[in-house]
Amino acid sequence: MAEDREENDTLLAGLGDDDIITNVYEGGLKSWECSVDLVKVLLEEINNGNESSHDGVYHIVELGCGTALPTLALIQDQLLCSHHRTHFTVADYNYDVLRLVTVPNLLLSWYRTTKRSVDWSSEDDLEITPELLENFIATLQERDITIEAISGAWSPHFIELLSNKVSPSPNVLVLGSETIYSPASIRAFTKVLVEILIQGEASRALVAAKSIYFGVGGSVDEFRAVLTECGGMAREVEGMDGWESQGVTRVILEVRRE
User: Nearest-CA neighbor of 173 among 37, 40, 38?
Assistant: First the structure.
C-alpha cells in the first residue's frame, strides 16, 4: 500500500457527524449516491455485453474511492468471468479509510462472490485469519487480478506516484464519484484525471456527480470548464433521466482526452 501519510492516525477521533473536514477527511467512510449510480452504469455495460467498454482495459483506477462500490462491481465481474489480466488501483485521501473501509470491503466482496455455498448473511462477522487472506490472494492470482491502494492528496506527488503504476497499461479506465463537490477539488481532481488519461491510447473515465453542490460550490459546469482547460472533453452518459437528489440532477460523464 503506497501512501502519503501524515495525520491520518487521528481521523476517527472527533470526526462527529461531518461529511467533510477540509484537508482532514474527504467523506470516504460513507457510500455516496453517485457511486451507486456509477455501479448501475457499469453493470449495464457488462450485462449488455458492451465488450468495447471493458475488453482490453488492463488498469482500473478509482479516485476518491472510499467504500469503492464501483471497483467492487468490476472485481466481482472479473472473479466470476475472468476476461484478462487486470490491475486495480484504489486511491483515497485518507489512509485510515483504505485500512478500515476499502480493503475490508474488498475482502467481503470476494468472500460473498466466491463462497456462495457458505451460509453467511450480511449481518454476520467475517473473521480475518491468515488462511482467509491466503485464499483471497490465491483467488486473485488465479484470476490475474492485482490490487494496490494509494492514500494522499491529489497533488504533483500523487500524480507521479500513480503514473509509475499506470504507464505500462495502454488502456486505463478511471472512476470517480462525488469528486467535484468544491472548486478546489474540481481543479485538483481534473489535473490528476487528465494526467492519467494521457498515459493510455484508449483511456477513458466515468465521473459521477450532482449537477451542483449547494454550500460547497462545486458543479458539473465548472468541471467541464476546467476539464477543457486541462485538455479533456466530456459527454453525458445517456439513460439517467430522472436521477435526482432532493431536486438536484445527478449525471455521469464519460471523459476522454482531446
Answer: 38
DSSP helix/strand/coil, 226 = helix
173: helix, strand or coil: strand
- The answer to whether 72 touches 79, Cβ cutoff 8 Å, is no
> What does pTM read for this prediction?
0.85
* Amino acid identity for residue 17 in this structure: D
C-alpha cell, 207: 465521473
All three cell numbers of 61, joined, read 483506477
* In the block, residue with C-alpha cell 470526526: 15
Three-state DSSP class for residue 218: coil
Distance CA 197, CA 166 (A): 9
Assess whether pLDDT exceeds 70 at residue 120.
no
Beta bridge partners of 147: 88
Query: C-alpha grid cell for residue 133?
Result: 487472506
Position 113, amino acid: T
Number of residues assigned to the chain: 258
In tens, the pLDDT along 21-50 reads: 555 545 555 677 889 999 999 998 888 766
Through-space distance between the first and last CA atoms of the chain, rounded to whole angstroms: 32
Q: Is the separation of the CB atoms in 209 and 180 below 8 Å?
A: yes
Rounded Cα distance, 49 and 225, in Å: 33
